[in-house]
Amino acid sequence: MAKKTMSFEAAMERLEEILHILEGGNENLDTSLKLYEEGIALIRSCSAQLENAEQIVKMLQMQADGSAALVDFRKPEGGAE
Fold this sequence. Notes:
This protein is of the alpha+beta class. It has one domain. About 55% of the residues lie in helices and about 10% in strands. The two termini are about 35 Å apart.
């Protein structure tokens, strides 16, 4: 059975939970490593979801004649994200 992908929001919420648990420092090494691995998997999932969303995002861009056109979203060249 295929594993269902967690929503971006749910994954971020779980990442926050993991962060608080690990920051508490009360877990044993095995539990901490499992939480760390889960966190890495969630980060990868969130990153993939963001990349997918970026591919489908459209934005209105004003044309020289004052009209608006739908164009593919592109990252700024050489700028910070």
